[in-house]
Amino acid sequence: MMQGLVFEGDRQISLRDFSDPNPGPGEVLLRVTASGMCGSDLHYYRAEASAPDAPVCIGGHEPAGVIEELGAGVDPVRFAVGQRVMVHHYAGCGGCEACRSGWTQMCTTGPATVYGKSAHGAHAPFMTVSTQSVLPLSDSLSDIAAAAIGCGTGTAWGALDRVGDVGGADLVVFGQGPVGLSATMLATARGARVIAVDLADSRLEQARAFGAAETINSGSVDPVSMIKQLTSGGATVAIETSGATAAATAALESLAPWGRLGVVGLGGRIEVDVRKFLSRQVTIATSWSLSSVQQIQCANFVDRHHLPVDDLFSHRWTLADAVEAYAEFDKQTSGKGVFTF
């Protein structure tokens, strides 16, 4: 038996007993070494209390670990016991165009499996994973960096890919939580001049450490006016990570003509006055996580440029500390948290 973390809703979690998992055909058994805490976890954490008969699922969708066992039919040349890996936290049919291009979360033959939501996730010592979701991990990247690249940092990478080339651009990142800080770090390394926006001076200080050329506390100044002042008219690119409607609106307003907005944060709304924006030729792109192909590209980029992804983590926890860990994470005043095993 092992214990796994379950989100009960109403800011409650529990550690429940589960049978030790066994890999099925086409799966591997993963010994989890790191399981990141993602901002989207808070949607489950803060949700209404679960019904007594609701399906029970172990949370956590940012795993890194070591292969412990191969299921039937798994190629022992591609996958080996003892191999360190990261995980693309979705699995699809494996045969449709979306799956074959790495976008398994957009599987067209049926709902995709989402680890930590519709299948047991990584907030436990072991989990089973489809081989289509298992990705190689460089020895020079840490387990916690791999966990972040699997979702939080990877989501920032996906958003930057969605808005196109950012080299030489004035790029503003709204929100400097783990995803926003990752966007600041990655965009700087990709050649952008980054302006970081947040309400917390501590996060803006971290943004500077990750390469931001300018920072704006949106609680003390109007961010749109300040961005236009710092860019001589508006940003080339904006990335919105906070999920706040006010931030999304400001991000759109801050764009220069031909500007591009990438929207990542969940919960916000954008209302476009077509008459106002038509002549400015702006582009708005939503971005949902990243593909497995992009996850490998992101990991290789982080490795090659020696980016300090580990510094995103302000707290390292054991599973026994889960109640305290999510209470702290819920405040959204610190950096990223991770369970290590």
Structure write-up:
- There is one protein chain.
- The chain has helices at residues 41-46, 97-100, 143-149, 152-163, 178-189, 201-209, 223-231, 245-253, 274-277, 292-305, 322-330, and strands spanning 2-9, 12-18, 27-36, 63-70, 84-87, 90-91, 113-114, 126-130, 134-136, 170-174, 193-198, 214-217, 235-240, 255-263, 283-286, 313-317, 336-340.
- It has 341 residues and is an alpha/beta fold.
- It folds into two domains: 2-151 and 290-340, Quinone Oxidoreductase, Chain A, domain 1, CATH 3.90.180.10; 154-286, NAD(P)-binding Rossmann-like Domain (Rossmann fold, 3-Layer(aba) Sandwich).
- The strands form four sheets. Strands 3, 4, 5, 8, 9, 16 and 17 form a seven-stranded mixed β-sheet that branches. It has a six-stranded parallel β-sheet with strand order 12-11-10-13-14-15, sandwiched between helices.
- Strand 16 (313-317), helix 11 (322-330) and strand 17 form a beta-alpha-beta unit.
- Helix 4 packs across helix 10.
- The chain is globular, with a radius of gyration of 20 Å.
- The model has no long low-confidence stretch (mean pLDDT 96).
- Its EC number is 1.1.1.-.
- Residues 9-339 form the Enoyl reductase (ER) domain.
- Keywords: Metal-binding, Oxidoreductase, Zinc.
